[in-house]
Design brief:
344 residues; alpha/beta; Rossmann fold; seven-stranded mixed beta sheet; 11 helices; binds S-adenosylmethionine; binds zinc ion
Length: 344
């Protein structure tokens, strides 16, 4: 069965057209005839050859496949030194268990080698080699091992008071939107598993939701989560730096934890501004170090939290001229939120 989308919010990545004939297996642009395959019913509205090198690399080595499926587990682990113990208890248990296991295996291996117990040595060496391969491929996990406990201890002795909290920034943006006189259009860019879109108050709006990501593995999890939660959302596989949406379409454009890691963060923000309606709101969050960071904080920030990023702070000086009322708030020691409004 096919459906015709005429003058849609979508934009053909090849010709910019807005008309498509869609089915669960493919979308066809009726202006240029280009077809876009669907994965799990979601259209892949991007051209592989125009993707940035960093985006392709992160997708293929981190977000797609096994690591993408484990993202809900690895992501809270990465931030465990900056979260309250009550939220990260199981991660700390796993962290100390990993240390004990690695040290135990290493001591056992040395003892087996010294005593000439070769079979025991091989049995002990195998998991160590496996761990070394994983830690070598995912270096941030290696650095997390040595930084997590010292950083947690250091931060817990120096509490940080933000000028505005995460919740206050969200409430500042959300409160006027809740009284809007018409149904809003909300877009989440690099939505991943739709976690942030779902959790941070946006579901309290009278809105239609659209979400885009480059990774099939991540977006499939988002699709499953949103359908379990009963939230209707238009999901698209696409590139944040070439958003497959027409100009001036969304009242709210969000992005959580992605901008700094894209091949061209400034281009991605310009794209977010392009697809926002005049008067629309942008909100994006990512890594940025607070002023009082210690050398240990910096090591954790650069080797773990921000290790995959292209930039390491909000590119506030390079925002498009169409954005006004720009506010960058250091909400935690290692994160900013930037809010802005598109003029008009
Ligand atoms: C750290 S995750 C954040 C996911 C989600 N926003 C959240 O808060 O959990 C970054 C996301 O950016 C996506 N991403 C990376 N490069 C992208 C690109 N060029 N276009 C769209 N999404 C991209 C990844 O697939 C991943 O899902
Ligand atoms: Zn086209």
């Amino acid at each position: 069965m096919t459906t015709e989308l005429k003058a849609s919010k979508y934009r053909c990545p090849t010709c910019g057209g807005a008309d498509f004939v869609t089915s669960v297996t493919q979308w066809r642009c009726t202006d240029c005839g280009q077809t876009y395959a669907c994965v799990y019913g979601m259209p892949k509205l991007f051209n592989e050859e125009t993707l940035g090198a960093q985006d392709r690399k992160l997708r293929d080595t981190f977000y797609d496949g096994l690591f993408g499926r484990l993202y809900q587990v690895t992501m809270p682990a990465i931030v465990m030194p900056v979260r309250p113990l009550s939220l990260s208890g199981p991660y700390w248990i796993a962290y100390f268990a990993a240390w004990i296991a690695l040290l135990g295996l290493a001591v056992g291996l040395v003892a087996a080698l010294v005593s000439g117990a070769w079979i025991a040595a091989v049995i002990l060496a195998l998991p160590l080699v496996l761990a070394a391969l994983v830690l070598n491929r995912q270096r941030y996990l290696l650095h997390l091992l040595w930084t997590a406990a010292p950083v947690w201890l250091s931060l817990s002795r120096r509490p940080y008071t933000p000028p505005e909290t995460f919740a206050q920034v969200h409430e500042r943006v959300l409160a006027p939107l809740r009284t809007a006189s018409r149904r809003l259009q909300v877009l989440d860019v690099s939505t991943g598993s739709c976690n942030s879109l779902y959790k941070h108050g946006w579901m309290s709006l009278d809105a239609d939701y659209t979400a885009i990501d480059l990774s099939e593995t991540m977006l499939k999890q988002g699709s499953e989560m949103m359908s379990k939660a009963g939230v209707a959302v238009d999901l698209v596989l696409g590139d944040a730096m070439a958003l497959p949406f027409q100009d001036d379409r969304f009242d709210v454009v969000l992005s959580y934890g992605a901008v700094n890691g894209l091949t061209d963060p400034v281009k991605a923000i310009a794209e977010m501004a392009r697809v926002a309606k005049p008067g629309g709101v942008l909100l994006f969050l990512d890594e940025q170090m607070y002023d009082a960071a210690t050398p240990l904080d910096r090591a954790y920030f650069h080797k773990v939290l921000s290790s995959h990023n292209i930039i390491h702070r909000c590119p506030v000086e390079s925002l498009p001229a169409s954005l006004t009322d720009v506010r960058v708030t250091q909400i935690y020691q290692f994160y900013y939120i930037c809010t802005a409004r598109k003029a008009g």
